[in-house]
From TrEMBL:
This is Peptidoglycan bridge formation glycyltransferase FemY. It comes from the Bacteria. The lineage of its organism: Bacteria, Bacillati, Actinomycetota, Actinomycetes, Kitasatosporales. InterPro entries: Acyl_CoA_acyltransferase, FEMABX, PG_Glycine_Bridge_Synth. It comes from Streptomyces graminearus. Belongs to the FemABX family. Keywords: Acyltransferase, Cell shape, Cell wall biogenesis/degradation, Peptidoglycan synthesis, Transferase.
Length: 373
């Protein structure tokens, strides 16, 4: 017998997530409030006896001029992905979303398929024959995740390949950098920092860099640095209102869901970053810095304070989020990968995002529309 998928309340959604070690912040009810251009709905997976066995935040984006939607479950849904009867979990979801007017469904199973240790990543960067991370042998591989990929393909799902030269997909990153915390003392984590990181942290301390926690009122200071970073690194910045909405929505759901850190030197904010917390998973979310006074190493000081606070919170992982899978020296994102790996982070590959076209014609039309944007 298949499961029943139907809407649940925010309270039911949150209670289910609270009973798990963690879930992506993109699968919380509050994330729907961050995305006002999308219609959001909390879904629940129910067994015949009424037990709630899964939840998911679905974001519905309308197709221009048509009352049909792209249904998107970023880094979700929160279900048992190792279940032998996965079909009976996904088929009722597709039926429910089709009933809402979805022409296509996109999801991102939060399932790890491969890991590379920091040493393995460093070796891959140094290997002239390795052009992408996938060219280097992984430290570990998950057979269950590989089986999941095969099952999804057999069910008619299509894997979204990482797009562009830097390996980032249009949705959520398939490759991330994570520092494992489970069972490790802060001294263990500090020993995982490379020499450059340890040197820079000491340099920042000697120069008098102070890292403080900020609040909603400090978001404009963060944003000033973020806009400068966007211009320097050639990406389109989100507006200040996005971060204000994010802070309001996430902290309303849980007062310690989102944090802001500021690295100050002689009264000037030189770097700032946001941190997100769900259960034992802590994410470095958005970072920003100025080109001024880089010699005092504010970024290393700020990250180390965030990593220490994550350990104090009892985190099982500190997540640096997306990384490039391109190992070419000419790629401007390689420096960011080196920075994250230098903090003791290993590379992690998820199974990626998957599409299920419910209406192939509209699915293709939407792809064309997004490509033109």
């Amino acid at each position: 017998m298949s499961l029943t998928v139907r809407p649940v309340t925010r309270a039911e959604h949150l209670a289910f997530v609270a009973g798990r070690p963690s879930a992506s912040h993109l699968q919380l009810p509050s994330w729907g409030d961050v995305k006002p251009d999308w219609r959001a709905e909390s879904l629940g997976w129910f067994e015949a006896d009424g037990r709630l066995v899964g939840v998911g935040l679905v974001l519905l984006r309308p197709l221009p001029k048509v009352k049909r939607y792209l249904a998107y479950l970023p880094e979700g849904p929160v279900i048992d992905w190792a279940a032998p009867d996965l079909e009976r979990r996904l088929e009722p979801m597709l039926a429910h979303l089709k009933g809402l007017g979805a022409f296509s469904v996109k999801m991102g199973p939060p399932v790890v398929v491969r890991r590379w240790s920091p040493d393995a990543v460093k070796a891959a960067i140094a290997d002239p024959d390795a052009h992408r991370l996938r060219d280097a042998p992984p430290t570990s591989e998950e057979p269950e995740a590989l089986a999941l990929v095969d099952r999804l393909r057999r069910m008619g799902w299509r894997q979204t390949e990482p797009g562009g030269e830097d390996g980032f997909a249009a949705g959520q990153p398939r490759y991330v950098c994570q520092v494992p915390y489970a069972g490790r003392s802060l001294e263990d984590i500090q020993r995982g920092l490379n020499q450059q990181w340890r040197r820079n942290i000491k340099k920042a301390e000697k120069a008098g860099v102070k890292v403080v926690r900020g609040d909603y009122e400090d978001l404009p200071a963060f944003y000033e640095l973020y806009a400068e970073t966007a211009e320097r690194d050639r990406f389109i910045p989100r507006p200040l209102s996005y971060f204000q909405r994010m802070w309001t929505a996430l902290t309303a759901e849980h007062p310690d869901r989102m944090r802001l850190y500021l690295a100050q030197h002689d009264g000037e904010v030189l770097a700032a970053a946001t941190m997100l917390i769900v259960g034992g998973h802590v994410w470095y979310s958005y970072g920003a810095s100025t080109s001024r006074r880089r010699e005092v190493q504010p970024n290393n000081a700020m990250q180390w304070r965030m990593m220490c606070d994550a350990h104090e919170l009892g985190a099982h992982v500190y997540d640096f989020r997306g990384i490039t899978d391109t190992l070419e020296e000419s790629n401007h994102l390689l420096g960011l990968l080196r920075f994250k790996v230098g903090a003791g982070g290993g590379a992690v590959e998820y199974v990626g995002e998957w599409d299920f076209p419910l209406n192939r014609l509209l699915h293709k039309a939407f792809d064309v529309y997004m490509a033109r944007r």
